[in-house]
């Protein structure tokens, strides 16, 4: 292998390897959004879903679901609880497949309450273990006839992934309740009502170049009514209108009929998250089309105005000065500093003439006011089909900025497509490999596994993305997160339960690329040819001009060990470097909650002899060499 470290071929965009967040598989509610109470505002279709009436120790009473209707259209329902006994009556909440709590950690409870008349009523708040024991408790005493927020906190005395919450009425009488909420204090950056720290840490550990949000199909909605509308996701969480999640499903083998979007993780939180983890924000907006796999509802072209306005206002919300309407709103929400938005997606996985017609309207309006914003247009999930080719041609004619390709294919497809971008037009739109994942069984199969065969195929494919960094400006695996008891889609990059999480082998592939993305592509050849499958090996090399390092990636997808002699033009004789290896002898190997590091990177030191270094490329291995230059 010869690496010409002194011959720069292409620039690697700082955004090259990023993450794509969608609230699928309970990634948001029940996942990253750390709220432990399910259906806290009683807005699910069945208003008491997740809740159970409690009558213990002779307690008795009743609960009514009331609707304020137009008086509070974004959060109309609340409950009216009447206790007929001095104690023992109330409700319990089951959480999202239970509530994960940790011994000695603090939990913050809050509730909106109103008393029909000021009576001597208090609320007994109890955290209950799976065994039925009280493992934390506190009291709040509503005191007003007007809606008011009451808060309290307690420490959990046990660790339990399956706890639940009880809210019991002390005293005879009635009380109105809404927004019953429980959060760990220890969230990401200790933000009140914030995000689950261990899951965000997994993202931060990837140092992603961008964060795409909020989807995916949920941008589109099953019908236009349930599309994602960013303006309804900011401000007081009690006023963020909850809607059914596009991924809510009754399927018997993976039922999630309790899957809703509370939007506690809304657009301000997404922008903050991107900022926190050093990623460039990439919001996707609805283009006036509902999900092509559901109703395919369309907004007539002459009625697209409000949709386009949402897009323009979003740019102002992200970048406008505090003197603008939406920049001021951002400041009022606690973030006066702009978010430096540079790109935005128009539509997700849409195709056909209706999409082009709508895209053109968005493009014209956005670029008229914000010519510097790069627009991402979707090419759909069908990279080999006619629709894809036609769309691709249309967008090239329109001189589009970035084209978003999706591929959920077999591992063999990834190996066969390593050269996919070698012959792409070098001029014109850049490529965003926006959603990809090798499917061990088939696309959409619930039996897909995040196994090593898939991960190593993705590693090989990514050498092709990297070699073609002049064409490919961004790439992200999808989907990102999955709750082990609440998923709809496999495979997924990071799996979690209520307390723990693990990165799949695919996660470590993504991480190794992202942490070693470098700044410039340099040629790496074997017998004067790019390494695209010779003896099952695939390779690429980049310089990190800031750190003065050369980074070489070699993926051996074969079952035979290979001996490699790396000859680096430009390395100082005798240089010392590092070798990071991700490897398994077992193509079916996986990571799990119990064995999270089964397939994970191992680092060692290497030393060059002159300008050479000899490596053994084990079977099924992904090696990353770093050396100063
Ligand atoms: O990643 C899961 C889904 O796959 C996304 O929501 C959609 O864009 C694609 O069909």
UniProtKB/TrEMBL annotation:
GO biological process: L-arabinose metabolic process
Statement: the UniProt record of this protein carries the keyword Glycoprotein: yes
Record domain Alpha-L-arabinofuranosidase C-terminal: where: 434-621
EC number: 3.2.1.55
Presence of the UniProt keyword 4Fe-4S in the record: no
GO molecular function: alpha-L-arabinofuranosidase activity
Enzyme class: hydrolase
Annotated keywords: Glycoprotein, Hydrolase, Signal
InterPro entries per the UniProt record, alphabetical: Alpha-L-AF_C (IPR010720), ASD1_cat (IPR055235), CenC_carb-bd (IPR003305), GH (IPR017853), Glyco_hydro_b (IPR013780), Glycosyl_Hydrolase_51 (IPR051563)
Catalytic reaction list: Hydrolysis of terminal non-reducing alpha-L-arabinofuranoside residues in alpha-L-arabinosides
Family: Belongs to the glycosyl hydrolase 51 family.
UniProt protein name: non-reducing end alpha-L-arabinofuranosidase
Species this protein is from: Mucilaginibacter ginsenosidivorans
């Amino acid at each position: 292998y010869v690496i010409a470290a002194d011959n720069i071929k292409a620039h690697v965009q700082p955004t090259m390897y990023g993450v794509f967040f969608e609230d699928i598989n309970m990634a948001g509610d029940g996942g990253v959004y750390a709220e432990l109470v399910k259906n806290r505002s009683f807005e699910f279709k069945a208003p008491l879903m997740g809740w159970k009436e409690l009558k213990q120790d002779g307690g008795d009473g009743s609960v009514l679901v009331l609707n304020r209707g137009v008086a509070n259209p974004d959060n109309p329902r609340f409950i009216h609880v009447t206790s007929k006994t001095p104690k023992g009556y109330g409700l319990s909440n089951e959480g999202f497949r239970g509530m994960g709590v940790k011994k000695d950690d603090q939990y913050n409870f809050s509730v909106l309450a109103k008393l029909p008349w000021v009576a001597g009523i208090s609320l007994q708040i109890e955290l209950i273990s799976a065994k039925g024991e009280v493992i934390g408790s506190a009291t709040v005493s509503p005191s007003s006839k007007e809606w008011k927020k009451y808060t309290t906190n307690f420490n959990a005395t046990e660790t339990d992934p399956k706890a639940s919450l009880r809210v019991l009425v002390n005293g005879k009488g009635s009380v109105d309740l809404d927004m019953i909420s429980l959060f760990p204090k220890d969230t990401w950056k200790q933000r009140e009502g914030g995000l689950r720290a261990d899951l965000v840490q997994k993202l931060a550990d990837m140092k992603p170049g961008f964060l795409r949000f909020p989807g995916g199909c949920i941008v589109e909605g099953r019908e236009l009514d349930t599309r994602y509308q960013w303006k309804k996701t900011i401000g007081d969480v009690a006023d963020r209108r909850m809607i059914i999640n596009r991924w809510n499903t009754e399927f018997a083998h993976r039922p999630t009929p309790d899957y809703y979007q509370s939007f506690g993780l809304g657009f301000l939180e997404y922008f903050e998250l991107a900022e926190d983890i050093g990623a460039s924000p990439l919001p996707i907006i609805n283009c006036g089309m509902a999900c092509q796999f559901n109703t395919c509802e369309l907004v007539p072209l002459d009625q697209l105005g409000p949709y386009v306005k949402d897009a323009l206002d979003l740019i102002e919300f992200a970048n406008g000065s505090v003197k603008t309407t939406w920049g001021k709103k951002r400041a009022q929400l606690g973030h006066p500093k702009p978010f430096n938005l540079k790109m935005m997606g128009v539509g997700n996985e849409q195709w056909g003439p209706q999409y082009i017609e709508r895209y053109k309207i968005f493009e014209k309006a956005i670029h008229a006011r914000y010519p510097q914003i790069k627009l991402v247009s979707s090419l759909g999930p069908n990279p080999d089909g006619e629709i894809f080719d036609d769309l691709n041609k249309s967008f090239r004619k329109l001189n589009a900025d970035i084209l978003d390709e999706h591929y959920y294919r077999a591992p063999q497809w990834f190996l066969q497509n390593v050269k996919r971008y070698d012959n792409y037009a070098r001029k014109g739109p850049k490529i965003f490999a926006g959603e990809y994942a090798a499917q061990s069984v088939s696309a959409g199969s619930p039996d897909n596994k995040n196994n090593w065969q898939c991960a190593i195929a993705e590693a090989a494919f990514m050498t092709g993305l990297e070699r073609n960094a002049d064409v490919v400006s961004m790439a992200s695996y999808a989907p990102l997160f999955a709750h082990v008891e609440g998923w709809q889609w496999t495979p997924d990059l990071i799996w979690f339960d209520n307390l723990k999480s693990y990165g799949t082998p695919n996660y470590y592939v993504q991480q190794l690329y992202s942490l070693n993305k470098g700044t410039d592509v340099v040629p790496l050849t074997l017998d004067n040819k790019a390494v695209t499958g010779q003896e099952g090996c695939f390779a690429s090399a980049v310089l990190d001009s800031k750190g003065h390092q050369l980074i070489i990636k070699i993926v051996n997808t074969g079952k035979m060990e290979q001996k490699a002699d790396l000859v680096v033009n430009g390395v100082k004789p005798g240089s010392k470097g590092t070798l990071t290896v991700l490897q398994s002898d077992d193509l079916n190997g996986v990571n799990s909650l119990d064995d999270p590091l089964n397939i994970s990177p191992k680092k060692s030191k290497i030393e060059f002899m002159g300008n050479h270094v000899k490596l053994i490329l084990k079977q099924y291995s992904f090696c990353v060499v770093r050396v100063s230059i």
